[in-house]
Amino acid sequence: xxxxxxxxxxxxxxxxxxxxxxxxxxxxxxxxxxxxxxxxxxxxxxxxxxxxxxxxxxxxxxxxxxxxxxxxxxxxxxxxxxxxxxxxxxxxxxxxxxxxxxxxxxxxxxxxxxxxxxxxxxxxxxxxxxxxxxxxxxxxxxxxxxxxxxxxxxxxx
Length: 157
Description:
Helices cover 3% and strands 49% of the residues. The protein is mainly β. The chain has a six-stranded antiparallel beta sheet, with no helix packed on it. A three-stranded antiparallel beta sheet has the order 8-7-10, with no helix packed on it. Strands 1-2 form a two-stranded antiparallel sheet. The longest helix has 4 residues, at 79-82.
């Protein structure tokens, strides 16, 4: 599977559905060794506008627009290639939290979802519904893991 995805965007021209873009995404960034993140699409409001796209900066930890969404493609290398020092008994150095409701799909490979208390092994086809929780990812295999994530701005009530 490619580390950098192809993005096809559809639209309406002269009252007919058409493909308006078909190309490799331009904003794939390697934030850490072999950790490739591509922010494929975002929306800035709800309901979403179908008329335009706002380019967003690609950051290691996403900043989902207020009342918006983020569509992210991530290729996570094995931990040994990432260069992150994980110390036993300490929180994972890549722990992070976003104020979002996330739908995450594992496309290939395997990956551990690490929480403050507990962890679970995810494999291709698994789906995570993440509700604004502090978490980290750990690829303890010898192969990259590809995940898709849709982040939706959310509030904790």
